[in-house]
Fold this protein.
Amino acid sequence: MGSGLDSRYMISRLKPPNVMVLSLTTIASPHRGSAFADYLFDRIGQKRLSRLYGAFRTLRIETGAFSQLTRRYMQEDFNPKTPDREGVRYFSYGATVQPSLWSAFRQSHRIIEQAEGANDGLVSVKSSQWGGESGYKGTLIGVSHLDLINWTNRLRWLIWRLAGKKRK
């Protein structure tokens, strides 16, 4: 799911007795799902999606919770069952990027932009907003979702390894 959604789940549903949470700040978490997840499930189909998952696993990219990132799942299942906990303050940031011609997010960015507007390549600014009007703290500009979760470096390192270079 992502650390923001995992944290909301822990605070709201697990409620560990040894943890006192006063606030949660999330960055580009898909609180309302992602139009790109919808696109994958609607357009690609389950058979081809299974092959895509296999390719992601080869690249060591986790895909286990991807089906839980659809807008429908988030709005009809996760969010109703994971309400904000009283006494915890919720804050959030979104992110936007204009992907380059060679960006891994060029296609996903276009799909999300058409459906939801400004986005970081995987999560729209609209979906990343959580914590009410006063909880949304702003939008990071020129930052992709890969940058936020440090996959930019992971992909760079993979390419270096495939090219026979050593990581510094």
Remarks:
- The CA atoms of residues 47 and 53 lie 10 Å apart.
- The radius of gyration is 17 Å.
